[in-house]
Amino acid sequence: MRVLTEEPLLRYNTLALQGRARAFLQVRAAAELERALAWARRQQLPVIPLGEGSNVVLAGDIEALVLRMAITGIELLEEDDKQASLRVAAGEVWHPLVEWTLRRGYYGLENLALIPGTVGAAPVQNIGAYGVELASFVRAVHCVDIASGREHTLAGAACEFGYRDSIFKRSLRDQVIITAVDLQLQRKPALQVNYPALAAALAQQPAAAITPQAVFDAVVGIRRSKLPDPARIPNAGSFFKNPVVAAALAAELAARFPGLPQYPQADGQVKLAAAWLIEYCGWKGRCRGGFGVHPEHALVLVNRGGSSGADLLALAAEVAASVCDNFGIALEIEPRVYGA
Ligand code: FAD
Ligand code: EPU
């Protein structure tokens, strides 16, 4: 086991921010994880799991053992003519997994194509896109407790999944490392194509042509047309969550701001499009120092040659303050901030 010290994290976060990990290890096997947790306990260092770093903001150095989760493997647990269950190791990369499931005829993940990151991070914020959330497919999440090294399994229903939310952001925050996720997928397509941008992209196709592969292709096309590729323009996707407000406030805002996109939720609340609020405030395409608001999507903050997470957070605070001034709504940052 080769623990690196004072390791620069620049290439391990898609915002390309500078920051070091006090200790750093790539974890490629379960036994290595066990040894690493024992080492951290002896050193009395906190432990932070990291996948592809596509949903983190490094605001400074991290005084912890950072474990880059790289354990791979896909195991078929069960398959019949209706369903297939898979156990996928935490270090598998999400998008190639979606491609693999489609090739095998296991359906459901097609709307979640091209989301960056690892399988182990996916339950943390319950990744979602184009009308579908990971929660619908999670049968179980396998974890190791950081403090004790003990393994345990949570059933999907115990993960407290919500919009960009789960138990891993709440009572289990910083407590566990996810080692594998069990997914239950369909053998017969059950397409979800109501999300407005997706429905529009598929509108020209005859119904028979709308297969899981066609949905996958449409989602990839939409995402490429408006979301910057982190390999070219460093970013962490949506920088803020879409605010969810009471129906009465949503109705009041709709009357004052015609055109503000609103998405009614099952519990009666209404989700608003943060991108629209930010664009309305005039931020789209604007830059501050080395960071900016993406010209194609106002919810994405991009790195234009900056290095300091503190500068990025200063821009985010300015954006949030003007949304609060104009609409009375407090935006919440979506990625996890470390080293602040
Ligand atoms: P990291 O950024 O490495 O980690 C994120 C958090 O999860 C950290 O707190 C980390 O400690 C924790 N974590 C990571 N691995 C583990 C583990 N094994 N066990 C326990 N905790 C762990 N998200 C969406 O939901 N929908 C989208 O459409 C979407 N689009 C995006 C587009 C772009 C261009 C980018 C850059 C990001 C986008 N995201 C989206 C956000 C991101 O892809 C997801 O949050 C993804 O799940 C992060 O995976 P990661 O491996 O990079 O996690
Ligand atoms: N819009 C604007 N201005 C913009 C961009 C969008 O007014 O600059 C409007 C659009 O016209 C649309 C609405 O905002 O009416 C919603 O836009 P979009 O469909 O792009 O989705 P979003 O709400 O901005 C969310 C997720 C994305 C996910 C997409 C698709 C959050 C915080 N973000 O974005 O997830 O890919 O829906 O489902 O929920 C991420 O989490 O990193 C991420 C990219």
Q: Can you give keywords for this protein?
A:
alpha+beta; Uridine Diphospho-n-acetylenolpyruvylglucosamine Reductase, domain 3; Uridine Diphospho-n-acetylenolpyruvylglucosamine Reductase, domain 1; 3 domains; four-stranded mixed β-sheet; 7 helices; 20 strands; 27% strand; globular; binds flavin-adenine dinucleotide; binds uridine-diphosphate-2(N-acetylglucosaminyl) butyric acid
Report on the architecture of this protein:
With 340 residues, the protein is α+β, with helices and mostly antiparallel strands. The protein folds into three domains: 4-69, Uridine Diphospho-n-acetylenolpyruvylglucosamine Reductase, domain 2; 74-186, Uridine Diphospho-n-acetylenolpyruvylglucosamine Reductase, domain 3 (2-Layer Sandwich), CATH 3.30.465.10; 235-338, Uridine Diphospho-n-acetylenolpyruvylglucosamine Reductase, domain 1, CATH 3.90.78.10. The chain is 24% helix and 27% strand. It is built from seven helices and 20 strands. The protein has a five-stranded antiparallel β-sheet, with no helix packed on it. A four-stranded mixed β-sheet has the order 1-2-5-3, with helices on one face. A four-stranded antiparallel β-sheet has the order 13-19-18-17, covered by helices on one side. β17 (287-288) and β18 (291-293) form a beta hairpin. α3 packs across α4 (212-226). The two termini are 29 Å apart. It binds flavin-adenine dinucleotide and uridine-diphosphate-2(N-acetylglucosaminyl) butyric acid. Flavin-adenine dinucleotide binds at residues 14, 48-56, 69, 90, 115-118, 120-122, 124-125, 127-129, 177-178, 227, 230, 235-237, 336.
